[in-house]
Amino acid sequence: MSKTIILSNRLPLQINITKEKLQVTPSVGGLATGLKSFHREGDSIWIGWSGLTEEEIPVNLKAEIKVRAREDACITVSFTAEEMDGFYYGFSNRSIWPLFHYFTEYTEWESWQWEMYKKVNQKYADSVIEHYEEGDKIWVHDYQLLLVPNMIREQRPNATIGFFNHIPFPSYEVFRTMPWREEILNGMLGADLIGFHTYDYERHFLSSVRRILRRPVEFNEVTLANRVVKVDSFPMGIDYEKFEQTALKHHEISEDQETELQQRLNFHRKKSPDSQLILSIDRLDYTKGIANRIRAFEYFLEKYPEYIGKVRLVMLAVPSRSDVPQYQLLKKEIDELVGRINGKFATVSWIPIWYFFRSMPFENLIDLYTSCNIALLTPIRDGMNLVAKEYIATRTNQTGVLILSEMAGASHEMNEALIINPNNFEQIADAILQAIKMPKEEQIRRNTLLQKRLKRYNVVRWATDFMKALDKTKENQPSFKAI
Ligand code: GDG
Q: Where is the signal peptide (predicted)?
């Protein structure tokens, strides 16, 4: 029977070794959390990196890791520390990530990192070939693996290959600055179907293909010498039911069963009923607009000082890519900002920003979602932003206000949120005030519409739609004359 081969940089599980023993935890991040439910329900295998380099795995545990991964239908690909350096911390996160998010001043173009990117992409492609059987469908994910579709195509010309990009695709004027732009586009065009979160990313990609490769593009199809590649948008959904059900369970528990985090979060509200908690959750990444958000919150307290002592920003920043210098600088900037603002506004019984720099277990994440009546998400650029969708899914009594940046892909489907420009502090401060004052009936009206949409277009529907469209690409291939 044919299967789906999912391929992504990281597996949905993270393997650690403590005292010669394996520890397996779920991976954090948009792609892993989103696709996991599709993987669990379908007939698929998932190929990716375990999180450990070859040097970090003792010889006697190599086989055990493979067996443990297999239990979750996962296959590990292994890399040396040097390969990871050039491919992941290098080209993926110092070249493609900043470029695709319009942070051109952060891009580095190092030939050795590009060579490593090609080498590692080839390793992923080879692993797919090893597990591929005639009739299988291959679904490659994200910006770390842009060359893989064509590397597979070269070895299996008739394979059915889909590619989904989880981050924005920049405009042609930005993309053209990449030294290896032709190779990247040709790599992606190895797929039969290329998916993006929004129509804008799709449009930008097609424009680059037309202008850089001079390939004929008609509507959303690219014609190559012997086949047609379809490009389309598929806005990713979440596992709505999981978030909704877990939130419902949280509301059912009695006060003495509350976690310490819940008690702390609720204490603040019970003590002063008109107090408000504003939540933000992201990986610590310069694209997420965390520094802007803190400054905008400071501006809010200055502009509306009557809320000093009443409104608190609860901020979870998950450590990410800490080997890349920009992330270290950002961490420093945020630590200083939080310290300065807390020092400036704190009273003996209140601090304005409650800052966590760590990853939290899923249950605690739900505590945060359900306890905070406002969510403030201000990315400068964001492919989609699943946190916005998860927040709405956990608001089971339909109260709560989402303030969301127009630069997040999610804003295209979430018009009922308060949509802001992340660089406009005046607008953010006023949106916070509007959220605080918003009548319950209005909150319920907005969230009911949002929930209806998110429930219908959940992650399984997203994946199913993509796979159906992928099947269709084979049915609709025009017959090309042999050249
Ligand atoms: C990329 C794109 C796109 C976060 N902290 C914890 C935790 N999380 C989970 C959230 C959410 C996910 O991580 C973050 O997803 P996002 O979509 O917000 O962001 P990225 O990681 O940047 O994802 C993004 C996404 O891919 C999907 O295509 O939306 O634009 O950049 O699911 O819940 N989970 C746990 N503990 C945490 O501390 N358990």
A: none
